[in-house]
Amino acid sequence: MALSDTLKSLSKATNEAGSPVGVYYGTVTTADPLSILIDQKLPLPKEALVLLKGASFKAGDSVVLLRAQGGNQYIVLGEVDSE
Hints:
Blueprint: H1 3-17, E1 22-31, E2 34-38, E3 42-45, E4 49-51, E5 62-67, E6 74-79
Parallel strand pairs: 4-6
Antiparallel strand pairs: 1-2, 1-5, 2-3, 5-6
């Protein structure tokens, strides 16, 4: 395989990968059912959230999330310490 072919393959793979992970800050809008608002306009329902064991939130909590590749699920890392 020529060097130019290798570079093209690498470039294509990079473009297809897009941005595999994104970091977001959100605000819990409701605790039951859980809903988190990110970017002041995008509410995420419980079905789109992956919670760590023992996680519990109340309305108004600020949280940090990771967007999984593809953007269909968000991992809620935890509450932001406001102090």
